[in-house]
Amino acid sequence: MDAFLTVMLFTMMVVESPASFHPVTITANQRLAIDAFQSSLVNLSSGEVEEIVYNRTTPVIELTEDQEQKLLAEYPAYFRVADSRALPPSQKRKRRSRPFARVCPSETVRSAVTVAFDKNGKPVLVPHLIRFHLYQEVQEKLCAADKCNPGFQCRCRNKIITTKAVVTYIKGHDHKFYTTELKLRSCTAIEL
Questions:
Q1: Which domain holds residue 67?
Q2: In the chain, how many domains are there?
Q3: Which among 74, 175, 188, 75 is positioned nearest to 141, based on CA atoms?
Q4: CA torsion through residues 112, 118, 123, 128, sign
Q5: Helices (H) and strands (E) in the chain, counts
Q6: Can you spell out the DSSP letters for 111-147?
Q7: What are the tens digits of pLDDT across the range 82-108?
Q8: Is the confidence at residue 11, as pLDDT, over 50?
Q9: Which of 27, 49, 84, 186 has an alpha carbon 20 to 30 Å from 13's alpha carbon atom?
Q10: What letter would DSSP give residue 176?
């Protein structure tokens, strides 16, 4: 009986997490697409790169079915089914907060980002499992104005917060997927 349980447990581990034995890697064609995207960023200012990263809605690469299956097996907690509040990568929805609801007027933006910055400011690709209708969604609260709502003496600025996600690096890594912290923007009040 003990040998049977040991074999069953080992079999379950292999079946449930095949990516731990065979990491999910980028194909040669995907690497070419990533390199082309990276090249398009080289001569841009940091502000221009930020603009491209924060506004890109289409994936840089398309994952294979095998890659999607392995990512789901290795990182199931990171992918969610799109619900009424979340949208696929090609769409974003903005919701304006009610006036005077907060010190700073802000817009909540939920999206399935395709490119982001890691906590060190390096651009990364954020994969989605399109065949399974599963996405890595983020929520940002962006300042809708520089001034605080009436009655408050302050300014409004977007600060950086982080959240974990599965990514592949655009530059300088070994073409595998990792979990890392992504930079997100969140509106906050700053005293005058």
A1: 19-191
A2: 1
A3: 188
A4: negative
A5: 4, 9
A6: E--SEEEBTTS-EEE---BGGGTEE--EEEEEES-SB
A7: 754 544 444 444 444 444 457 999 999
A8: no
A9: 27
A10: B
Residue 3 located in a structural domain: no
For the entire predicted model, the pTM comes to 0.75
Backbone torsions φ then ψ of 174, nearest 5 degrees = -95, 30
CATH number at residue 142: 2.10.90.10
pLDDT digits (tens, 9 = 90+) for 58-77: 999 999 999 999 999 999 99
- Is 114 inside any structural domain? yes
Collapsing DSSP to helix, strand or coil, 87 comes out as coil
pLDDT digit string, tens, across residues 12-64: 444 444 444 578 999 999 999 999 999 999 999 999 999 998 888 899 999 99
Tell me which residue of 109, 189, 180 sits closest to 141, measured CA to CA: 109
State the Cα–Cα distance between residues 26 and 61, nearest whole angstrom. Answer: 9
Residue 65, in any domain of the structure: yes
Is 179 part of a structural domain of the chain? Answer: yes
